[in-house]
Structure formats: structure tokens, C-alpha cells
Design a protein that fits this description.
This protein has one domain. It contains one helix and five strands, in the order H-E-E-E-E-E. With 56 residues, it is mainly beta. It binds zinc ion (ZN).
């Protein structure tokens, strides 16, 4: 899974005017879930299901 930072850099994730993370493709605000297999939390798009891990 790619990191949120990498997603932002590759423009797969954008930020809205309130600095909230959005899926660049769907324009959906990313939701958060905790994944016991990953350190930190997972940000995902409820529309297309893409996921990015958020460390810290
Ligand atoms: Zn999406």
C-alpha cells in the first residue's frame, strides 16, 4: 500500500480548501479506518476503494 504522502506527490490524492484529503479521481473525501496489519491508520476512498496508509 502506498503512503498518503506518496499519493499526494503522485496526485492520486488532493487536498480540498480545508486541507482535507480527497481522492483525485472521484473527488470524494477520504475516510479513515484502522488496520491491525498496518502501522498507523489507513485512508480510503469510499467510491473507488483505493487505500493509502497514513503513518503518524
Ligand atoms: Zn476514489
Amino acid at each position: 500500500m502506498e503512503s498518503v504522502r506518496k499519493g499526494l506527490r503522485s496526485k492520486a490524492i488532493t487536498k480540498d480548501t480545508y486541507e482535507r484529503l480527497e481522492c483525485a479521481e472521484c473527488k470524494e473525501r477520504l475516510k479513515t479506518r484502522n488496520d491491525p496489519d498496518e502501522v498507523g491508520s489507513v485512508r480510503f476512498c469510499p467510491e473507488c476503494g483505493r487505500e493509502w496508509k497514513q503513518v503518524g
